[in-house]
Amino acid sequence: xxxxxxxxxxGPSFSDLVPYAGLVxxxxxxxxxxxxxxxxxxxxxxxxxxxxxxxxxxxRQINAILSRxxxxxxxxxxxxxxxxxxxxxxTECHFPDPVTRAIDDERRAHFEREKGHFESRHALIxxxxxxxxxxxxxxxxxxxDPGSRAATYADTVLQTFETAIREVEQYLANVLSIKRxxxxxxxxxxxxVTARYDEMFQFIRFCVTGENHPVRLPDIPMYLxxxxxxxxxxxxxxxxxNRFLGVVAIDGLPAESWPGILNCLDLMPLTYRWSSRFMxxxxxxxxxxxxxxxxxxxxxxxxxxxxxxxxxxxxxxxDAMTMVAETEDAIAQASSQLVxxxxxxxxxxxxxxxxxxxxxxxxxxxxxVQAEGFGARxxxxxxxxxxxxxxxxxxxxNVREPLINTRNLADLIPLNSIWSGNPVAPxxxxxxxxxxxxxxxxxxxPFRLNLHVDDVGHTxxxxxxxxxxxxxxxxxxxxxxxxxxxxxxxxxxxxxxLPLTLAAGGDHYEIGADRDVSPAGEVNSxxxxxxxxxxxxxxxxxxxxxxxxxxxxxxxxxxSIKPDHRNAISRQVTLLGEARGRSLSDFVSGVQxxxxxxxxxxxxVDGPMGQLIDAESDGLSLGSFQTFEIEQLMxxxxxxxxxxxxxxxxxxxxxxxxxxxLIVLDEAWLMLGHPTFRNKIREWLKVLRKANCAVVxxxxxxxxAERSGIVDVLKESCPTKICLPNGAAREPGTRExxxxxxxxxxxxxxxxxxxxxxxxxxxxxxxxxxxxxxLGPVALSFVGASGKDDLKRILALKRKHGLEWPTxxxxxxxxxxxxxxxxxx
Length: 825
Hints:
Shape: elongated
Largest sheet: 13 strands, antiparallel
């Protein structure tokens, strides 16, 4: 027989050192000592965009929430710095043309070439250790009804804990963006859950091993200590799962604190976990411990023999007197119950496969912490104890003194969050797990730009001339092509969107000019684009639009619209719906009122606008990407601009069928300055989200935006606001505009100090961030080439080479390596 005794190890293992017992409710874990634990993920505001008053207010609110807790409670705030997710894969994007795909490939290569991308994630763990059953038994009979007396001790404790954490969550939700860690099903068969995992337990596993992946729970979720166990080797530098473990302990606090005092750790290009553990004491227990400390310092004020013989032979210890006074102040604060006291233990945990690199990283963190006025050391003999004390729910390991209060704790814990953006497009109408619109490598923390906040993608872009607005809009358009079946409609001024439109195979229409660019990309001369706005009268909605459109034309000629006019127009539109000819001239020949005929003469073939809106058939063909250049149309005046844009808006609205769509209004102040378009934009901002369409309003004129009368609508309906650098942002007149759209003093300073044509500041309910667009030569060749000389060269190449002009254009700009990857026809 085999001798089995040598295989039976009865000594303690790593699982005996961790406190986890079982899952007793959704997101609630029972610990071995009877404690209950729950957790949340949270995101705090970006302190760089917050004023001192706002930061102090957040700390005050956090202190007010935490001071409600007392003995038996423990909070652990975890800041995790992890490598960022990769750039969206090629298979996740659906670029329909080689140019926009080449732009994205260049951005992907730049992102992957820039090493050291990290982002911070924050978690909050709350643990409750109930009083002993003997202590709570009498209370149960004195302060409860007969029904609750019948409940078991375990059920009562669980109910008390869930009620308490529900209240804490409600308070924290007013300050932070918070999400509960819950138990989720993984697989369902026949209506039954066959597998599930708990987000809280997944986070615990990450804290132990540094690996973040779901762990399947057993049918009866008990003995979790064996699921979370790992191979641990003790020593001066412990090893967990074949990776070296380093712990940097913060063992000295400065004389005073302020909100975000350790925010510098959020900028470190390292992977680490910063654990801040705080064990609460109620006011009575805190006063007892503080009184004991006061007596110790009091005894040092005068020497022992002076106290014994009642003499004063030596000088009084001034330092001891100062500490006595400070301890008395702490006792008074504890008595006021405006703050709570407890034991604070902060450590920073690092993993690395190389012991040398781990030592260097620990030294870098230690130096940074010490530079902020804290004491810090790299744990050696105490490394295992410090690591165990950082694990969620561990009350006993590595308890550090002295006491601090929750007001200092609110300043010390990592509440700051550098916003990295949503890793997927948040719009529910997009395909599931769609990639973000734009992802950039901006500093050590990358940024993902999404126009959408939930299902609203309307965006306000504001910046002075020459700050890079046209480049930003062109890049947004190019990157929006990544979504399947995407539709893009751009109203441009100055032909800044011409290079990208032609390169991506879009349609570029120069309305009102003697030339346009055909869908095939060929530059034509002649009469240009012509419309037949009355060509489609198949539905009642089409007839209603036609009647209203003609009324607008008549009103623009100075005719006051009366009921007789409306009746005549409506009658003739109905008759025109049954006729073969539907040009504006056909309408004029059939309408009976002379006043209407004379008013519409300006828009028929006999008038100056007839070549544009009095065609026999409509020349406008809308594809997936079209740009309308309206500079020439603007020069024709309001009487000619309004009818054309009103018709184009109608055609676009009919194309919105639920596919991802984007409408870009460059120089939107032109539309905001007219009541007709102002009302149309107001309507779009309210209803187009249901059609999965986002509207981007770009303007450079503050005065026109102010006079539009819909600044409040822009503020409310455009959750995403992108501001370009503006050195005049601090000046009176301009400053008030930024304040009206919700910017604080610090944000205005950021906009004023940003670098033009390079940095952009985005603000949304999800976060705030100043980022660098990181444009490469390929992208700049198509989104940043808007000068007159560049446009002339592009059109010349187009006439000479046809659809292959992007290849020759890149070669002229010295980007031949990218040109070789574009397909030729």
